[in-house]
Every structure is written in C-alpha cells, then in structure tokens.
Amino acid sequence: MFGMSIQLLISLFVPLALIIYGRKKGWLSWKAFGVGLLIFILFSQVLEKTLHFLVIDPSGTSLKGTNNVWAFVAYGALAAGVFEEIGRYIGFRFMLKNHRTYGDGLSFGLGHGGIEAVLIGAFSAVNMMVISHLMQTGQFEQVASSLPATQVDMIQSMLNQPDWMYVLGGIERIFAIAIHVALSLLVLYGVRNGQFRYVVYAMLTHALIDVVPALYQVKVISNIWVVESILALIAIASFVFIRRMNEKFH
Questions:
Q1: Which of 134, 204, 231, 249 has the largest CB neighbor count within 10 A?
Q2: Where are the transmembrane segments (predicted)?
C-alpha cells in the first residue's frame, strides 16, 4: 500500500507541479494543454486500443494468429508511434493554428503526458489499492469469480510485487512526460516549417523507445532495472532536447 500510494502521489502531483511552474513562468497555454490531453485520449486510448482489441490476443503478449514475439514487439511499438504522433500532427496542424509557440509545444506535451500519468499511473494505483483492500478483507474471491483466470493471475502477480516496483512505476511517469514534451516539440517544429519529415522522425523515435518496454512485456528483457535505466537516459536526452529546441523556436 505504501508503494501504491507513492505511485499515486507522483502521478498526480508531478503534472500539477509542472502546470503551476508553467503558469508562473508564463509559457502555459490552456488551449494547447487541453488539445494535448484530448489527442492522447482519442488517439491512444480510443483508436489505438480499438486496434489492439482487434489485433492482440487476450493474453496481451502475442498477436492473434501468431506467437512470434518480434511481430508483437514491432506491432506494439509502431502502433504507439503512428497513432500518437499522427494525433500530435493533427492537433498542431488543424486545432492549434494560432498556437504554435515554444510554450504551446511544452503545454501540449504536458497535457499529453500529464493525462497519461493520471490514467496509467494514478488510476492503476487506485485500482490496485482497492483490490488490495478487497483481498485483505476477504472480498476478492467474490470479484475474482467474475473475471477471466488470466486476469486474476495478473492481478495477483501485481499484488505480490515489492513496494519499490510501484514507486518505480511512478518515477517512470516522469520519464514519460519528458519524452512526450520532446516529441511534441519535434512535431510542432515540423508543422511550423511545413516539413512532415519531422513527424516521421517523431514516429520512428517513439516506436524505438517503445521497443524497450515491449521487450520487457514479452520477457525478452527480464530485468526491470535495465528497462528503467534506458528510459531514464532517454528522459535525460529528452530534457536536453527540450532546452535546445527553445533556441530553434526563438
């Protein structure tokens, strides 16, 4: 419960702190923030997940019709890259015609990464806290009887994780926000200059980044510290990129 609580706090308060910081520094654009949030929900949580439902096996670790691990990894990485970066392009190209400053790029990325932190980090932490409470009070069996066996096994394995795994999950949301902001600026730069190739660069970069967690999901990589170390390095590189893009926009 301690680890889950830390994950919840990080996933909620880091985006909130960045919003406050953005307002204080004067770069926060509520419209760009809202469009970034909307684009994530529509393209990642609705359109991409609809395709996942049609293509991915209920086990969640293979594609329907094939058990090839590399096909699953390639599909998962490319789907995330294409859907989210096309979504960013549409957001900047058609919904933010008069909001294409450096601050708008930061705001869009914060909205995109912030709502992901809430939906993936905070909501999952709350769900696990509720399930943990049900298990401690002996009520979980009633709930489990209505769930598929594979889902019950997954829930139980998550509950058996050490507390630091949940803390690590919260820290990963910070890495993800930095990456989303960097990719948002890259796409915006392409839109501002009328060069779609930057959107393609963003797609490929996003896909390459997602290869790492996909490999962990199918157990090709078994050490979580390897995954998080790579993501931490990518987040640092994203932060450097964000700072340097300020010069490009000005």
A1: 231
A2: 6-21, 28-47, 67-87, 108-131, 164-191, 198-218, 224-242
Give the number of domains in the chain: 1
Q: How far apart are CA 174 and CA 170, in angstroms?
A: 7
Residues 6 or more apart whose CB falls under 8 angstroms from that of 204 comprise: 81
Which structural domain, as residue segments, surrounds residue 191? 2-249
Pick from 51, 11, 39: nearest CA to 183: 39
Question: pLDDT-based confidence at 31, cuts 50/70/90?
Answer: very high
High-pLDDT (> 90) share of the chain, %: 75
Q: Is the pLDDT of residue 177 over 80?
A: yes
Closest CA to 135 of 104, 127, 241, 165: 127
Task: Give me the amino acid identity at 186.
Answer: L
Mean pLDDT of 165-172: 93
